[in-house]
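Sequence design from tokenized structure. All designs in this work follow the same two-part layout: the structure record, then the generated sequence. An example of the structure record is given first.
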């Protein structure tokens, strides 16, 4: 009971974190977002109508739930790979200025840019105006549409602006990246078919309303990336808890990392595996972690600035980059 009370207090303190203000060197700083360790999945029992708490299924999926679950894998996934420029896939993003303060918009943009700088295979163009209802290029429309959620991958709605909802309680960098990664095609780490080798699920502590969150999905394709206790896609230990006790725990010497405030190294690697390689049709194809380790750059999987592995070949480097020795560089550097 005492633990439950502490948990309620913790939840309340998170709510109070919204819109707080602090006095600092005579400058009033407005904090329009939650604590950086806040995790929206830990509070997801408040949300209804989403698959696994924060994935919105397309309308045609709702008519056939089994069908929609089968769609949640990398082979049938629609990726944001139809806008190739200079060897990089570009994703257009509109952060709705009606919904966010300047601070909030900056936090969202910074969290997304952080994914770009770290993965280096995908770029984001931030639109300063809302495109028309049938834009020639698909785009993500980030707005407050109630809770923290996204569709899985690119959908048929993307030319009208594919909704991705980030409400006040989602505005922490890792949370934002988590939801963006759903949009780019990432599933939850817990759904991996090999997860029982790394974590145990404590079913006695799970809310009845959270039964699909912990399902193993045989067709989640993690592209050979090891199970990752630091991933932004791994729930924190009290997700969907009905009593404040842990719902998942590690079964190995490694612990679930609750301190991280951004996506992990292996999250970035997985983005590379999904979006680095360009086929003859100018669309992406995915490769495995082993394939990546054996050959980081090739004519189809070109490397980015300052990446090693081009072996003297300019055509192994993206865009105008040239290979100097084994490194992709700007020609004027
Ligand atoms: Zn999620």
């Amino acid at each position: 009971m005492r633990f439950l009370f502490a948990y309620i207090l913790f939840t309340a303190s998170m709510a109070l974190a919204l819109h707080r203000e602090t006095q600092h060197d005579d400058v009033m700083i407005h904090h329009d977002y939650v604590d950086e360790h806040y995790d929206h999945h830990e509070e997801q029992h408040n949300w209804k109508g989403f698959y696994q708490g924060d994935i919105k299924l397309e309308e045609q999926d709702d008519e056939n739930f089994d069908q929609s679950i089968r769609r949640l894998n990398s082979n049938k996934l629609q990726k944001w790979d139809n806008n190739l420029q200079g060897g990089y896939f570009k994703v257009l993003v509109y952060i709705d200025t009606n919904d966010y303060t300047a601070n909030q918009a900056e936090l969202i943009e910074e969290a997304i840019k952080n994914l770009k700088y770290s993965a280096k295979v995908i770029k984001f163009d931030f639109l300063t105006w809302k495109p028309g209802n049938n834009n020639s290029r698909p785009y993500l429309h980030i707005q407050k549409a109630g809770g923290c959620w996204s569709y899985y991958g690119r959908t048929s709605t993307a030319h009208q602006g594919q909704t991705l909802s980030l409400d006040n309680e989602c505005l922490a960098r890792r949370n934002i990246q988590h939801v963006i990664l759903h949009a780019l095609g990432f599933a939850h780490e817990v759904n991996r078919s090999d997860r029982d080798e790394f974590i145990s699920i404590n079913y006695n502590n799970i809310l009845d309303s959270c039964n699909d969150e912990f399902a193993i999905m045989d067709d989640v394709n993690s592209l050979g990336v090891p199970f990752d206790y630091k991933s932004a896609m791994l729930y924190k230990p009290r997700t969907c808890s009905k009593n404040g006790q842990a719902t998942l725990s590690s079964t190995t010497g490694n612990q679930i990392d609750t301190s991280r405030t951004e996506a992990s190294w292996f999250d970035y690697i997985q983005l590379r595996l999904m979006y680095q390689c360009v086929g003859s049709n100018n669309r992406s194809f995915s490769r495995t972690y082993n394939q990546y380790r054996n050959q980081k750059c090739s004519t189809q999987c070109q490397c980015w600035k300052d990446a090693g592995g081009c072996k003297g070949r300019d055509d192994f480097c993206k865009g105008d980059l040239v290979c100097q020795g084994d490194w992709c560089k700007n020609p004027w550097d």
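The pocket of zinc ion is lined by residues 41, 54, 178, 182, 188 (CB under 6 Å). We note this feature because it recurs in several other targets discussed in the main text.
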